[in-house]
């Protein structure tokens, strides 16, 4: 099972994201202590905090106030939308691809990204590149700074 726990600019302001980032860390430690976490990967940016977990099974009540929790297909759909720039504050921004690559590299280096998440994130990054190439979603104002200048 793949589990995604997150908070982002769509569900909270910056201060709430910072506050709940610590809750995500605590939830991870609780899950890791009580369940078999096979792999995990974290993404932390100024606009989001996310945790992806690969578990043998997950039988907890997975509703934590203020956090979005999705599993399996919903979690995979989210990471594809994220890599494609559809979940960004400025639709189509390219920075998220670098952030996903960095998170994947860090998780591999730490030994917590195994074959499942490595495959998921490699493919998501590839999909994000294809989406940008085919749709040109990343043309124009693709950062908050360039949007402000426009």
Provide a descriptive summary of the structure in words:
The protein has five helices and four strands. With 150 residues, it is of the alpha+beta class. The chain has a four-stranded antiparallel beta sheet with strand order 2-3-1-4, sandwiched between helices. A hairpin with a 2-residue loop joins strand 2 (37-45) and strand 3 (48-55). The longest helix has 21 residues, at 14-34.
What's a concise summary of this model?
This protein has 150 residues and is an alpha+beta fold. It has helices at residues 14-34, 73-83, 95-110, 115-135, 144-149; strands at 2-8, 37-45, 48-55, 68-71. Helix content is 50%, strand content 19%.
How is the main sheet built?
A: 4 strands, antiparallel
Cα gyration radius (Å): 15 Å
Helix content: 40-55%
- Order of SSEs, N→C? EHEEEHHHH
Strand line-up in the sheet with most strands:
2-3-1-4
Structural class: alpha+beta
Uncertain residue ranges: none
Count of distinct strands? 4
Task: List its salient traits.
150 residues, alpha+beta, 4 strands, 4-stranded antiparallel sheet
Which helices and strands, and how do they pair?
Blueprint: E1 2-8, H1 14-34, E2 37-45, E3 48-55, E4 68-71, H2 73-83, H3 95-110, H4 115-135, H5 144-149
Antiparallel strand pairs: 1-3, 1-4, 2-3
